[in-house]
Specification:
Distance between the termini: 48 Å
Radius of gyration: 19 Å
Order of helices and strands: HEHEEEEHEEEEHE
Largest sheet: 8 strands, antiparallel
Helix content: 25-40%
Oligomer: single chain
Amino acid sequence: MRLFFLFVICFLPFSISGQIKTEYYKEVNIENVKNYYSRYSIKIPDSWFSYYTDPNLMSHSPNKFKDSISPKKNYPSFIIREGFYKSKSNQKSVKFFIKSQKRRFSNFDYKIEREEHPLYGEYFVVLYKTLSSNNKIEVFFVTILNWNKQSYSFFYSSTDNYFDEHFKEVNEIISSFKISK
């Protein structure tokens, strides 16, 4: 037992210090993006850049926000979450999402739209607004797509003054989504 304890005390600091620390809110290269999206791919516009957010999510934003991204600022961003809503259908995933948002926001007001993905057919979009901590209106465009009982959620958020400016590019990103075989 003492030998095990001594081993842990001596070698644990080396194993911890050898781990790679992810830098959040710093631009990453295309290889990081490809590795992160190992089970699917998207096409990021040339006018956008990629970075990690906490908790270790890959995010994408227009280049003009490169110097201002941080966890406390609102800027246009796009994130994909895989398997976030465990369900067999788009409808059940949307219901789960709305139920979870109603728990977060007491007056959760939203619109639902149906859209078509070029490869995977029908998906749902939930559009809603919130008041951010710095008293700006933030708009959320959440796309929920199920394919082969796997859910994929695309989150585009922005302050209302930038939302429309980047909306076309966001739709192009969503349309480019392709699941790897």
